[in-house]
Design goal:
Blueprint (H helix, E strand, L loop, with lengths): L4 E6 L3 H11 L5 E7 L2 H11 L3 E4 L8 H11 L4 E6 L4 H10 L3 E4 L4 H12 L4 E2 L1 H13 L14 H11 L4 H8 L3 H14 L5 H10 L2 H11 L1
Parallel strand pairs: 1-2, 1-3, 3-4, 4-5, 5-6
């Protein structure tokens, strides 16, 4: 059971903030401790309110959502940022993940998916909407982002299996059930993978897996083992 999660809402449209706030408050375990209309206001409230989660739009005056994400995490490494935006193109999504966003949802998502995303990030997991995963796959197929995948060869067979599951968006609990190992063991392997592939968090790991040919490389390693 997680503690009450304090949420800071950031969107330039008051009506949108009201709608999100009222929806969230219908669910036990979450409370909205503050609202801001731009990134600059949000950073001030971050220091005052110490929220657990920031839900932010991307397009805002003064400081946009991606700039806010980067600065907020720099100021408070424990805060999780969930992007909620109409912008779902490759550049924006990958920039948000690189900035440290833990999740990304389109504003066209089913409202219940917002709660699923909050549950995930509240438990230290990442969450990307279904259409966001498609964008990350397209980024790989179009070759828009090239990265060095030399680290893939350093993964053990078990780490390769877990990487495939992570790239599919499975939680540690789901991975444990699929591979018949404990959640704690999954988390240990996940941390080792993050270290070996030189990424900062699971969100960047998923991005890396989709933007590179990692899954094919993992499959080749698995067959060779």
């Amino acid at each position: 059971m997680i503690d009450m999660q304090k949420i800071l809402l950031v969107d330039k449209h008051p009506l949108i903030r009201i709608g999100i706030r009222d929806f969230i408050l219908d669910y036990e375990g979450y409370t909205v401790v503050g609202e801001a209309s731009n990134g600059k206001e949000a950073l001030t409230l971050l220091d005052e309110l110490s929220p657990d989660i920031i839900i932010t739009n991307v397009v805002m005056p003064d400081l946009n959502g991606i700039q806010l994400t980067r600065q907020a995490i720099k100021n408070n490494p424990n805060v999780r940022v969930l992007i909620l935006s109409q912008l779902v193109n490759n550049d924006v999504v990958t920039n948000a993940i690189d900035a440290g966003a833990t999740g990304y949802l389109s504003k066209e998502s089913d409202p219940n998916e917002l709660i699923e995303a909050l549950k995930a990030v509240s438990n230290g997991k990442s969450y990307f909407g279904k259409n966001i995963s498609d964008i990350l796959i397209e980024a790989h197929l179009s070759g828009n982002k090239k990265q060095d995948n030399a680290g893939i060869g350093n993964l053990s067979k078990r780490e390769s299996e877990i990487l495939k599951c992570v790239a599919k968006g499975l939680t540690s609990c789901e991975i444990g059930s699929e591979l018949y190992i404990s959640t704690r063991t999954v988390d240990t392997h996940r941390n080792n993978i993050i270290r070996k592939l030189n990424v900062k968090n699971t969100a960047q790991l998923i991005n890396l897996a989709h933007n590179m040919n990692l899954l094919d490389s993992v499959n080749e390693l698995s067959y060779a083992s």
